Every structure is written in C-alpha cells, then in structure tokens.
Amino acid sequence: MTSDDKQKNLNLLKATVGMTANQRLVVMLYALHPTDRSGAILETAANLAKLVGMAPPVFSRTRKQVIEAGWLEETEKIGHIRYYRLDPKHLGENVVVPLRRAT
C-alpha cells in the first residue's frame, strides 16, 4: 500500500465520522476490497458479510443505509444479484471528463 493509498483511506475515515460503526465498516470494505474495472465488488452480500463478521441481514440493512446516504452506487445487476461500488465522488476522484474539440 502506497502512502497515497493510506492518505485516501485516512481521508475516507474522516469523511465518515458521522456514520455508525457498521456503516463505516461497509464503506471501508468497499474502498479496500479488490474490484473490477468499473470499481464494482463482484461478491455476494453473504460473502461480504462473512468477511467482516456481520450477519447477512445486518450487512444488507447497513449497506442499504449506505446506499441511501449516497456512498454506494449500483453498477450492474445479474439476475437478482446487484453489485455496487463506492461512489467515486466520495473518494475525491475527478469524475468529470473534459470535453475536447473533434477534429
């Protein structure tokens, strides 16, 4: 982990100060877990819950709260399984691509 990564994680912890411990845990899980190219975590809620030691219903309820707070966004849905990623705006990433003149 580079010093830039550590700084991003510290900034994320500072940004989540008003959240509950479980909500912060879910946000940090989505920030630190390996992702696909789009930033989505391709794991089921049951597997993610097991990873952080939460009961699956508690994890799902907490993740729903984090989604409603705008921290997570759905990236895709395969069957009945939804995949999410941390909203890039909360990571301090520039999500606006500058326009260029077509030549």
List the helices and strands and how they pair.
Elements: H1 3-15, H2 21-32, H3 45-52, H4 56-68, E1 72-78, E2 81-86
Antiparallel strand pairs: 1-2
What is the compact description of this entry?
It contains four helices and two strands; from the N terminus they run H-H-H-H-E-E. It is α+β, with helices and mostly antiparallel strands. The chain is globular, with a radius of gyration of 15 Å.
Written account of the structure:
The chain has 103 residues and is α+β, with helices and mostly antiparallel strands. It has helices at 3-15, 21-32, 45-52, 56-68; strands spanning 72-78, 81-86. A two-stranded antiparallel sheet has the order 1-2. A hairpin with a 2-residue loop joins β1 (72-78) and β2. α2 (21-32) crosses α4 (56-68) and α3 (45-52) crosses α4 (56-68).
What attributes does this structure have?
103 residues, alpha+beta, Arc Repressor Mutant, subunit A, two-stranded antiparallel ribbon
